[in-house]
Specification:
8 strands; two-stranded antiparallel sheet; 4-stranded antiparallel β-sheet
């Protein structure tokens, strides 16, 4: 982890809830079925706002990269398939797959605005499910 992130964690009094092993296990679980792979939204350490919207993630970066800079990750339980301009997107609830993945990876999470939130760091104790 770089010194900038270490300084930010120390200044904000953040507690770590994830480590590289757990991030890797979560990445493996959430990519175990390509048809059910969820979209995510990330907030990085030091950023004022999370990235806008949800998108697919390069999970190899999470497995082998610098995942220690993730403050939190929201996982969208709705899988949307675009059918066309005039037809509403088809939605499928993949909550069961996500919950099983979180359980198998032994990752604690909270529910935030109907999304699964995995905390890399937090200043207060999140209300884990």
């Amino acid at each position: 982890m770089n010194e900038k992130n270490l300084k930010f964690i120390s200044e904000k009094g953040l507690t770590s809830y994830m480590n590289q092993t757990r991030w890797c296990a979560l990445a493996n679980e959430l990519t175990s079925n390509k048809e059910l792979e969820p979209k995510v939204r990330l907030k990085y350490l030091g950023d004022c706002n999370p990235m806008p919207g949800f998108s697919y993630l390069d999970w190899e970066w999470v497995k082998h990269g610098e995942s220690s800079c993730i403050e939190w990750m929201d996982i969208d339980p709705l899988k949307k398939e675009r059918l066309g301009k005039l037809i509403p997107d088809k939605e499928a609830d993949i909550s069961g797959f996500i919950e099983t993945s979180l359980k198998n990876a032994k990752v604690k999470y909270s529910l935030e605005e109907n999304k699964y939130r995995v905390w890399g760091y937090a200043a207060i104790q999140p209300e884990f499910v």
